[in-house]
Specification:
The structure holds 2 protein chains of 2 kinds. Chain A is an alpha/beta fold. Chain A contains 26 helices and 39 strands. A 5-stranded parallel beta sheet of chain A has the order 3-2-1-7-19. A 5-stranded parallel beta sheet of chain A has the order 9-16-10-11-12. Chain B has one domain (about 5-125): Rieske Iron-sulfur Protein, CATH 2.102.10.10. In chain B, the strands form 3 sheets. Chain B has a 4-stranded antiparallel beta sheet with strand order 2-3-4-8, with no helix packed on it. The chains are: A alpha/beta, B mainly beta. Chain B: It holds the Pfam family Rieske_2. Chain B: InterPro entries: NasD-like (IPR052034), Rieske-like_NirD (IPR012748), Rieske_2Fe-2S (IPR017941), Rieske_2Fe-2S_sf (IPR036922).
């Protein structure tokens, strides 16, 4: 058995292991991996996501158990310090020795820290590892506590520097980017595209300083500023250095392997170093006198090294390496492919620029106009995948190549179809997955949907840029095989929720059976389609849940939340959380009268538990007589609009958050939606109402409200996204009417706004176009529909207790006045609870 | 299985000794159910209007032993008439009592007949 030692457990080192274990020859090998960092390899490409969730596990390439399960020894937190090539052994920093048959160096790179005076000061960071980020977070938290408007600068305006700029924004510091060159992303962008990107980034709050050579870092102990020239100083409280990378080639140098003048271990096309038993892959390998700082070529190198070691010596690295890349920088699409900057001698360029919309598109075309040689996209890279494929495969381009980047006047695509690609076209360059592999996975039955294709081909698991294309290909292939791509809600309907919405609206259906008989697949409905259609008819016809109660969901059927022993809980509406002492007393007295367990809910309302079916209408009669109404805690509808006390009482408040919260809660109460909806209104940026964790949130700022949309707590927490700034009450209501109605029309069943918004093609920008710019010409309809729902609101509990026919359902037995004799309560902290489940 | 669940045993139509007159047909919602008390038993009775059929089963959900099945939604799963428990949407065949989306114990099923607009449930004792 041959022993392979892999030095470095980064993305490329991990990929080497992953590719190796898939080989049948693996049984003849033993792999030991050394990682200097304390944790197993993680996805450094998406490092900035750590600032959003601070979940290091989510970034892991594979959990530690994966290595063990595959018989790989993973030794983390231990650096390899020496190679002895004669004995074929390595030594670690803990002075342990291991021998190898093959050594694979995947040590990657380290951030380059320029020798500027003062780099050792406190508050200066590099941006590379999770530990770096944790250090930055801790320092930023300390800064913000001392100084509310602290600033941080990033030294370097390249790709990583801009990512770090996003990190600074996410940490809530004022972001500054300082770049030595006269443009941003100098390696990927030409001057004009760089200027467009700069305008866009400035518009979202990044301060950009170009052509600045930093002389020294100022400060007594900790950083307070950067000095560029004599009178040219930028005050900052924190500095992140992102001035390029240097290969971690010290092991190679010390053991006498051939290294490049500016670093990197020299390799041939087999990924072999000057010692045939030692391979180098990833950012440490100097191939064709180049270091490739992208993940895709690193993965290819890992694959080549694997093949070479198992003896498939014909597999080598190609001479031309595709450096095309597409990414989202701070929400801005940036892509470049092929030859982004091309001298006029090789062809001509076609450029489309729109500075007001922050768009720039450039393609470079051969002199004969037949071949696409490369290009740059800023602001909108939706056509990148197709352009990239045309370039890679040398596909024919339109006679007028400008059609490839100009907005199509007739809406027709200039590209043709994904299915036109040749089978060998590489769709996922991170994982080297071709179109042919994706299609055959479906054709031979291995996968039947996008998720299946991703899991069996690994396409889309790297940078994720190809996902839309993988989805298109999957759907097109399924269609070609005659397999229908189903979006149906259950076995009784092949239609999606959105389709059903339209049908019910147009046909004016008011009964479940009408919809089922006319548009179902036969059968009699189920627990999935019945409540869905009940909810759609309620949204469209402004019905309450009292209508056709047998198709309502468990809770809607009895207008209360069923609890684990079959009793119910009761939550009256307390708009904005404002309640008079008299009402509070009434709640207490009613709870006492019916012996209900009482608790303040997570949504700051009061919940009364343990009501039997028979008690529900009695309790509600009492509540209604004290001026309460249904709180719809049981419905897929608006729950609460949580508020802070705002300028009514608070010395920091900038607006009357309670008054506005009450207005909004009363406006949207009772409206049935795909899922529950929560709101929040905060009177200032201290955000005591936690509005950004809600489906819609408002924060009072100078000059109006900032409106945030699509937030969520729950299992997948997500901050709401900033949608509009400094708008007045009227505009808030206008946008919210449109937003909620658009969500109600188009979401999937039981999809919260957060998930819906995240999957909305075109994202937040598209949402703004629909809701603010009225791109679809529907806002008037949306507003009218919402206004109808608002006008027709009726408290469904008041409706129920005043109607003897409706009251009939609130009996445990149809033939007896008795209560359920199976209920057992036990005492707990001076109240009661149901007997525990076994 | 504890004592309460053991009280419920499927009754075949041939074994019916008592036809218990439960309530008027109009006391049950169309394509929905309600609960009937017979001695110390709780029976869920469903008016499956779309099939022009009536079904009865124990009201006790075998999952957590709560008296809730009569409040569940009914419908069909691949043609089999079923009820979905309102607690966790476990579904049970109304013909055989079998749990259609899990491994729970089957529920007990009882015969139903309609005479002069009244609903009768069949018991063996």
């Amino acid at each position: 058995m041959k022993h392979i030692i892999v030095v470095g457990n980064g993305m490329v080192g991990y990929k080497f292991c992953e590719k190796f274990v898939q080989k049948s020859e693996f049984k003849n090998f033993k792999i030991t991996v050394f990682g200097e960092e304390p944790r197993p390899a993680y996805d450094r490409v998406h490092l900035s996501e750590f600032f959003e969730n601070q979940d290091a596990k989510a970034l892991e390439m594979a959990p530690a158990e994966w290595y063990a399960d595959n018989n790989i020894d993973l030794i983390t937190g231990e650096r390899v310090s020496d190679i002895s090539r004669q004995d074929k052994t390595i030594k670690t920093a803990k002075d342990r020795e291991f021998s190898y048959d093959y050594l694979v160096l995947a040590t990657g790179s380290s951030p380059f820290v320029p020798p500027i005076k003062g780099v050792e000061k406190e508050g200066v960071f590099v941006y590379r590892t999770i530990e770096d980020l944790e250090g930055m977070l801790a320092y930023a938290a300390k800064l913000k506590a001392e100084k509310p408007n602290a600033k941080a600068a990033v030294l370097g305006g390249g790709l990583l520097g801009l990512e770090a700029g996003k990190a600074v924004m996410d940490m809530g510091l004022e972001p500054h980017i300082v770049e030595f060159a006269s443009k941003l992303m100098p390696r990927q962008l030409d001057l004009r595209s760089s200027q467009v990107l700069q305008l866009k980034l400035e518009s979202i709050g990044l301060n950009i300083h170009l052509s600045k050579a930093t002389n020294q870092i100022l400060g007594n102990g900790s950083v307070v500023g950067l000095e560029f020239g004599e009178d040219d100083v930028l005050d900052v409280d924190m500095l992140i250095i992102s001035a390029g990378i240097r290969p971690r080639d010290e092991l190679g140098k010390n053991s006498g392997l051939e290294v490049g003048v500016r670093g990197g271990i020299v390799v041939n096309d087999k990924m072999q170093t000057s010692d045939e038993h030692i391979y180098a892959i990833g950012e440490i390998a100097l191939y064709n006198q180049m270091i490739y700082g992208l993940v895709a070529p690193g993965y290819d190198m890992a694959g080549v090294a694997v093949e070479q070691i198992i003896g498939s010596t014909e597999v080598v690295m190609p001479a031309d390496i595709d450096m095309s890349t597409k990414l989202k920088l701070i929400g801005v699409d940036v892509a470049s492919f092929g030859e982004p900057f091309m001298p006029a001698s090789k062809g001509h360029s076609i450029i489309f620029e729109n500075k007001t919309q922050h768009l720039y598109k450039r393609i470079n075309v051969s002199h004969d106009g037949k071949k696409l040689l490369g290009g740059i996209l800023v602001g909108d890279a939706s056509t990148y995948n197709m352009l990239h494929q045309i370039y890679l495969n040398g596909m024919a381009i339109p006679e007028d190549p400008s059609q490839l980047i100009l907005p199509a006047s007739d809406g027709a695509s200039s590209f043709g179809d994904v299915t036109d690609l040749p089978d060998e076209a590489q769709v996922c360059s991170c994982e080297s997955v071709t179109k042919g592999q994706i299609c055959s996975a479906i054709e031979n039955g291995e996968a039947t949907d996008v998720a299946g294709v991703v899991s069996c081909t690994k396409a889309g698991t790297g940078c994720g840029g190809c996902k839309p294309m993988v989805a298109d290909l999957t759907n097109a292939t399924l269609k070609a095989l005659g397999i229908e791509v189903k979006e149906g809600v259950c076995e009784h309907f092949e239609l999606s929720r959105q389709d059903l919405y339209k049908i019910i609206q147009v046909k004016g259906y008011t009964k479940f059976n009408e919809v089922l008989d006319n548009h179902g697949t036969g059968g009699h409905g189920c627990e999935l389609c019945k409540p869905l259609i009940a909810s759609l008819m309620a949204s469209i016809n402004a019905d309450t849940a009292n209508k056709e109660y047998a198709i309502q969901d468990s809770n809607d059927r009895f207008l209360a939340n069923i609890q684990r022993n079959g009793t119910y809980s009761v939550v009256p509406r307390v708009p904005g959380g404002e309640i008079t002492p008299d009402k509070l007393i009434a709640l207490g007295e009613i709870a006492k009268k019916y012996d209900l367990y009482t608790k303040v809910t997570g949504g700051v309302r009061i919940d009364l538990f343990g009501a039997t079916l028979k008690q529900l209408p009695l309790i509600w009669k009492d509540l209604i007589s004290h001026g309460f109404e249904s709180g719809h805690a049981y419905g897929k509808s608006l729950r609460t609009v949580k508020t802070c006390v705002g300028s009514t009482w608070c010395r920091y408040g900038m607006a009357e958050s309670v008054s506005f919260g009450i207005e909004l809660e009363n406006r949207y109460r009772g409206i049935r939606a795909p899922h529950k909806i929560k709101g929040g209104v905060s009177g200032c940026i201290r955000e005591c109402a936690e509005a950004r964790g809600k489906d819609f949130g408002l924060i009072a700022v100078e000059g109006g409200w900032n409106l945030y949309l699509g937030g969520n707590g729950g299992a997948t927490p997500r901050h709401a996204e900033l949608f509009a700034e400094q708008i007045d009450n009227e505009t808030v209501i206008k946008y919210l009417d449109r937003y909620l109605m658009f969500y109600m029309r188009t979401a999937k069943p039981l999809q919260r706004t957060a998930a819906w918004q995240e999957r909305l093609e075109g994202g937040l920008d598209y949402l703004k176009e629909v809701i603010i710019d009225d791109k679809l010409g529907i806002v008037e309809d949306l507003e009218n529909e919402m206004q109808t729902l608002v006008n027709k609101f009726e408290c469904e509990w008041t409706q129920a207790v005043n109607n003897p026919e409706m009251m009939k359902r609130f009996n445990h037995f149809v033939n007896s006045e008795e209560e359920d004799d199976n209920l057992v309560f036990v005492p707990m902290r001076e109240q009661k609870m149901p007997e525990p489940w076994n | 299985m504890n004592a309460i669940a053991e009280k419920y045993k499927t009754v075949k139509i041939d074994d019916v000794k008592v036809w218990f007159k439960a309530a008027h047909v109009n006391d049950f919602p169309e394509d929905g159910g309600a609960c009937v008390k017979y001695k110390d038993l709780q029976i869920a009775v469903f008016n499956f209007k779309r099939l022009n059929s009536w079904f009865a089963c124990q009201n006790l959900s075998p999952e957590k032993e709560e008296m809730v099945l009569s409040r569940g939604m009914i419908g069909d799963h691949k043609g089999i008439p079923m009820v979905a428990c309102p607690l966790h949407k476990k579904t049970f065949s109304l013909e055989t009592g079998e749990n259609l989306n899990g491994e729970l114990e089957p529920i007990a099923i009882y015969p139903v007949k309609i005479e002069e607009e009244n609903v009768y449930i069949g018991f063996s004792e």
